[in-house]
Amino acid sequence: MYHTLSQYWNKIQGSLFPELEEELGPLTEKQMQLISILEMVRIEQFLTSSFGCVGRPPKNRPALARAFVAKSVYNMATTTALVDRLKSDLSLCQICGWEQRGQVPDESIFCRVFAEFSASELPKRVHNALIKKVYENRIIGDLSRDSTSINARERPAPKKKKSKKAKKRGRPKKGEEAPKELKRLDRQLKMTQQERLNDLPKNCDVGAKANSKGNREYWIGYKCHIDTANGDIPISCLVTSASLHDSQAAIPLAEETASKVTSLYDLMDSAYDCPQIIEHSKSLEHTPIIDVNPRRDALAKAEFKAEAKAQKTVNWKPPEKIRYNQRSSAERVNSRLKDDFGGRMIRVRGNVKVACHLMFGILALTADALLNLVR
Question: For residue range 28-46, what is the model confidence (pLDDT) as tens digits?
Fold first, then answer.
């Protein structure tokens, strides 16, 4: 992996930057970061050409795709800000693919093309190809699984009322048991991957989570579930309703990651402490390391506290706890996505468009994290 990344970086630093500086003048750090990311992801290769098609030719899709990557790198809040920046910054305009400011299309075209990219899942396809190329025939040590809240500017969808099933009156006959409805995690073990993804709720709704001080916080929007590899590199991403519990997306996310890379350890917090998730992780030939959740068992809580105190007294840490500390990479990725790559700037509506917006940020973050390994 490092050899492949070094070749990318040597090409960018040795030949690409000097050539662009001759044409555009001195480059800022942000421009060099954007150029490096665009050169690595090569998003234009995933767009079909319209040459020879009937009708009016569409606006330059490769330049528009590169502009949306630039929007994530520059952490811009709106498409209006992106268009204004392109029309005022000639260097950025040329990096994206337009020779002159007057060639930059109107905001309405940006919005229409973004809807096309959302429907075709363009950034997700580019990200999948990048991950498979970099990690081909390589093994990842640790995968950290976690989710983060995504605030959206839209109304939460009304909750569907559960239909009450008519129960048979009286006690069941001797030897007869009432049929129990399978929980989602049990159903997921018997589903195909597409069925698992379709079963997850994706509408905007209200989510709740306890913060570091134990207080409950609420938000309206979605939840982004991410698998992160060593080096703070996002491998897979799912966007679901905000109210979905973290554990419900673990199995579909694990399957998606397993289709791209080979890994050894699954690191998860206590929200994922479920027998079904542990069983599925082992079925993928992984070793699950999950923080124990005693739930409402007072005796188990007391035992864990006593065990932790004894380990601290003798100054001993089990190997699992040392490896579990690597899970902090998931927190760093969540933080970078929100603070540096547009995760807090959601101005679109609907799961499909929100997922596309976040995936442009994930794509830029992944390329930047990979290049950081060799910079």
Answer: 899 999 999 999 999 999 9
